[in-house]
């Protein structure tokens, strides 16, 4: 499984446009993607800050999401000031029922889209997690 927390900052005055894009993204993601488990957007305390909790059955489902037509079809550069993706892993017994985040190797027969996604969004498992999985 792959779970991420996106730390997002929106350009000034773009909050309404951002939230409209997010409503569209959530609707299309749940409508068209079988591998999505959680996909939620939240406003942060700091001005123009948002968070997204994304959880997929595996990193391939996350990569398919990132490369999907409904994801690639938005002009994120118009609204995003900054975004940082952080892979997160649930604490056993306290993670909302989500399984651990895993990083399987890219299969030799992976599509070009999956290879591009692997380059753009490499999954990293911090060393200190190993004893905590």
Write out key terms for the chains shown.
133 residues; 32% helix; 4-stranded antiparallel beta sheet; ABM domain-containing protein; Alpha-Beta Plaits; 4 strands; Dimeric_a/b-barrel; 5 helices
Short description:
The chain has 133 residues and is an alpha+beta fold. The protein is built from 5 helices and 4 strands.
Question: What can you see in these coordinates?
Answer:
- This is ABM domain-containing protein.
- The chain is α+β, with helices and mostly antiparallel strands.
- It has one domain: 2-Layer Sandwich (Alpha-Beta Plaits), CATH 3.30.70.
- Helix content is about 30%, strand content about 25%.
- The chain contains five helices and four strands, in the order βαββαααβα.
- It has a four-stranded antiparallel β-sheet.
- Helix 2 crosses helix 5.
- The longest helix has 18 residues.
- It is globular, with a radius of gyration of 15 Å.
- The two termini are about 10 Å apart.
- The model has no long low-confidence stretch (mean pLDDT about 90).
């Amino acid at each position: 499984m792959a779970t991420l927390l996106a730390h997002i900052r929106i350009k000034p005055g773009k909050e309404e446009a951002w939230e409209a894009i997010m409503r569209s993204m959530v609707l299309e993601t749940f409508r068209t993607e079988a591998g999505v488990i959680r996909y939620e957007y939240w406003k942060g305390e700091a001005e123009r800050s948002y968070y997204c909790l994304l959880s997929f059955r595996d990193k391939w489902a996350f990569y398919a999401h990132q490369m999907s037509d409904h994801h690639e079809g938005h002009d994120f550069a118009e609204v995003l000031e900054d975004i940082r993706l952080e892979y997160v892993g649930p604490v056993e017994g306290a993670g909302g029922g989500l399984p651990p985040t895993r990083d399987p190797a890219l299969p030799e027969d992976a599509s070009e889209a999956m290879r591009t996604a692997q380059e753009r969004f490499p999954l990293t498992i911090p060393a200190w997690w190993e004893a905590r999985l």
